[in-house]
Structures are given as C-alpha cells and as structure tokens.
Amino acid sequence: EIASCLVGSEMCIRDRERRGSISVGKQADLSIFDTDFLRAKPAAILTAKTVMTVVNGRIAYIGDRSTDTPN
Fold first, then answer.
1. Which of 17, 19, 22, 30 is surrounded by the most beta carbons within 10 Å?
2. What are phi and psi of 20, to 5 degrees?
3. 10 Å Cβ neighbour count for 52?
4. Among 3, 4, 8, 60, which residue's Cα sits nearest to residue 32?
5. What pTM value is reported for the model?
6. Mean of the pLDDT values across residues 47-55?
7. CA-CA-CA-CA torsion for 47, 52, 56, 57, nearest 10 degrees?
8. How far apart are the first and last CA of the chain?
9. For 8-19, how does the pLDDT look when each residue is reduced to its tens digit (9 = 90+)?
10. Residues 44-52: contacts with CB within 8 Å, 24+ apart?
C-alpha cells in the first residue's frame, strides 16, 4: 500500500509533525510520473517518465527542465 511507504519513512526519522503524509504545512518530497505504477505492467514502469518532482515542498523539476524559482 502506498500509505505505508509514506508513513513508514516518517516513522524511521521520527518527524511526524512535518513529514509522513502529503498535506498542507508538511514538507513534501515526491515525484509524479506519466504511468500508474499500481496498474502498469513491469515493462511500462521501467520506461515511465517523470512529469514533476517536488523537494521540500518546492517544485524542483517540471517535464524536461529544472527550476530554481519558488512555486
């Protein structure tokens, strides 16, 4: 389950107040892909493209360009 990946990592670093879920006021490190990993065949996962990456709640990557500007 996806939730266990989010909450489990937060428990390892003991920072539930700021991490562990995607919600307002929490820091977020996440990547968005063009493929649904829960439904895709393994070969499709291997070729998935990153659509966006967020680091510490700020957009770090969109499509095929990086950004240093605040979101």
1. 19
2. 105, -15
3. 14
4. 60
5. 0.60
6. 91
7. -140
8. 29
9. 555 555 666 666
10. none
Task: Say which amino acid occupies 6.
Answer: L
Q: Is 4 left (phi over 0), alpha (psi -120 to 50) or beta?
A: alpha
Amino acid at 48: A
Amino acid occupying residue 26: K
- List, in sequence order, every beta strand (DSSP E) within the chain: 30-33, 50-55, 58-62, 65-66
Amino acid letter, residue 46: L
Q: Are 21 and 6 in contact (CB under 8 A)?
A: yes
CA 47 vs CA 34, 37, 50, 65: distances in Å: 10, 11, 10, 18
Helix residue spans in the chain (DSSP H): 2-13, 42-46
The residue written with tokens 């562990």 in the block is 20
